[in-house]
Amino acid sequence: MSGKQPPQYDMLTVGPFRQHTSLLWRPETGCGVIFDPGGETDRLLGIIDGYGLTIEAIVLTHGHLDHVGGAAEMQERLTARQGGVHVPVIGPDPRDAFLMSSVEESAAHFGVSGLRNIKADRDTSDGEVVNVAGMELHVRHVPGHTPGHVVYFCPEAEVVFAGDTLFRGTVGRTDFPYGDGPLLSRMIRERILPMGDKVVVIPGHGLPTNIGEERRNNPFLQ
To answer: Can you tell me the distance from the alpha carbon of 75 to that of 89, in angstroms, rounded to the nearest whole number?
Structure first.
């Protein structure tokens, strides 16, 4: 037997916007990734240490400040802690770059300090598979909340890190100048629901759910 186990994950709530940062890792190696580090870097690093993890990448679903505002500090500190080995930021679709470059301006508008602009080391696009930390992350572009929003599906763990697309009983906000409610609902139906009813949905805020529950009961997907 190889000893290979399904990846494990943990959902952590951070910052004034009560946003979810998640960890995903291989238990047999302790290598993993962190999704959407929106702040509270010290606390997150303590949790990473508690699990004994080596973080190989920072992965972002979209460009809103509550999801990416802590990524620059996280990148710097992980790189320093891991012997200077660069920890890349894997970004969303490049159509969210304008949001990632205006985090500090947005944070000032909300009276929030300590969040920083971030530039991805690499962008992602619909349909690609990102291989990182010994795991496959299947990328799906799901615009509507933001133009470049992507979700990351890990088939081996039967979990999708959905950012602000699909929530328990609802979908992400679309009342932004760049939002599109009908498009968001259509993209969820076309690009998230086919992942399978058993797949756990880790949303950007609120309680987790699963695809089957949302397929049956979410009013925005009927």
So the answer is: 7
> 21-30, pLDDT tens digit by residue?
999 999 999 9
As a whole number, the mean pLDDT across the chain is 97
Q: Is residue 202 part of a domain?
A: yes
Q: Is residue 1 part of a domain?
A: no
154: left (phi over 0), alpha (psi -120 to 50) or beta: beta
- Among 24, 30, 52, 59, which residue's Cα sits nearest to residue 154? 24
Do residues 145 and 192 lie in contact, with contact meaning Cβ atoms separated by under 8 Å? no
0.90 cut: is pTM over it?
yes
Closest listed residue to residue 9, CA positions, set 27, 29, 25, 28:
25
In a domain, 51, yes or no: yes
Check residue 122 and report its DSSP letter.
B
For tokens 């609802």, name the residue.
170
